[in-house]
Sequence to fold (323 residues):
Amino acid sequence: MALPAEALDALYAAPLDEFVQRRNEVVRERRAAGDVAGAAEAKALPKPSVAVWALNQLARLETERLEAVVAALDRQRDLQLGALDGSLDAKALSAARAAEKAAVSDLLAAAEALLVDHGHAASRATLDRVARVLRAQAIDPSMREPLLAGWLCSEEPVGGFDAAAQQIDPALLLAALSSQPKPKKKRAASGDNFFARAARGSKRREEAPASEPVPSAIASHRRRKEAREAELARAEATRRAKEAEEAREVALRAAEARVAEREAEATAAAQAIERLEGEVRAAEQTLDELRRELGSARRRREDVDERLRQARRELAEARVAVG
Fold:
């Protein structure tokens, strides 16, 4: 796929009813980034069915359970390929089938809970479709990446030798091969057929120690998943650091604004004090002038009172002289 992992995760990790909206967002993002092929690919992606959507979520939420199903199917395939050179281990095959059945049952229980939690009908038919799609995709190595990463987009069955190998009874295949005369040993030609090469590889795997390594597809997926998770973690850390820096800048600007506001208030208060002090000085000057005027008025009144008393004495003397 041309689409980057983060774009696929944005599409297939979201609730099912948001798929179309997320797909349109991815198309716009790809076009804005100049990725014409990616935009066209995203636009062509169909909306997953409920069963496919459930598997995509289980790949993220129930990774170990899904890997257990894949490992059990791989084990059966290896045992079936072993039948090609007569090394069928019926007991091991029975155990592998039992392991697959248990792993699928365990995963379907998780699928049922997931569907119910998200408001989807967890009918028997839906769960059967989940199991059918799971097996069809898991037995094809070319589909391991989208299955394990949670990027499935359709229920289309996958054909090919791996699918056939999963369905053919190896005991019948062994009987058919045993009835054929054994060819003389000779050096393998460059055109040695696929079945013989697969059989030799299977035999080597059968002769390996009992503690088998993790299947390469799963290990590869785990490495890619860990790399994506590390990349996402770094991106998240960068985003958080950027948000923290922006928050500090916002806090700094807010503090600067508060300081400027307080400085303006302090300046206004100082100007008010200066104005009032001027008014007080002017009032004191006026008071001094009023006090001087009051003193002058009091002295004038004393002078008038003295002249009034003098005039009354003269009036009294004139009355005595007339009388």
User: Anything to note?
Assistant: The CA atoms of residues 2 and 38 lie 5 Å apart. The first helix runs from residue 5 to 12. The chain has twelve helices and no strands. The mean pLDDT is 79.
